[in-house]
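Dear U.,

For the methods section draft, I wanted the exact inputs and outputs in one place so we can describe them consistently. I've listed the two proteins in the order they'll appear in the manuscript figures. Please don't edit the token lines directly; just add comments below if something needs changing.

First protein:
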Amino acid sequence: MKGSHEIIQARMKGRSPAAIYIIDHPETLPIEFGEVDVYLIPLDKMDFRFTVGLLVGITSLTIERCKAIAALCEKGGARATTYGVQRKYY
């Protein structure tokens, strides 16, 4: 999961982003601190224990996948999750 290791390292040093943003759709912009790219990763390969106590925002291509990722974050200890379907605007 691209971006998760930087968050884990910061948390081990007592630092943390105010919120984490899970990106589960094609994205061409570089990942910033606090963002985690999980696009194309199977749900059973995701580990969200690093979200413990944090607010997590999720964008995905389907509402079903948003809900599944939110459930994994909550299982990992996220304080709260919010999600939405990524839309293409023309």
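Second protein (the one for the lower panel):
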Amino acid sequence: MSLKELTQERHALAENTAFMRSVFAGTLPLTTWADYTYQKFQWYYAIEDQAGKMGLLDKLPGIARAHLIRDDFNHMTSGNHDKYSFRPITADYVRYIQGLKDAKRVLAHLYTWHMGDMFGGQMIKKLIDAPHRHLDFDNVQELMTTMRGMLSDDMADEANVAFDWAIRILREYDC
């Protein structure tokens, strides 16, 4: 089985959260999307920081998104950040990422989030009227090919952990 197949169940659970159903229905309030984008910047920065320290980003030029997520957030909020702060779940996830010392485990999180942006992010751009520079990749095919070459089935457990974090984070927005 491929890593994609080994994570398919959790991926489906993440896609079917109330948050994602609101995104796909076009009913998610922009203020909620802005808050999510603020949170997303935090864990992307942590993932990319760890991946950079482990040399993973050197093999994936153009994959880093944190700076673009920050820019999207700043454009969305016109620099008015006062009402946004870390959610406890975000802080927990960032601490989890910072505690990872194995490159394959970090790569599993990079795979889960960044590949999701390469694929599902393209639909989101059409559904949410907000800046989405972080979803524009200059070298998608190259990144996908290189990343797939770095993946192995033994990363499935940690990729599923990444999906579990995604599910927990997305459920934080359930009303």
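Candidate sentences for the figure legend, describing the second protein: The chain has nine helices and no strands. The mean pLDDT is 95.

Thanks,
Y.
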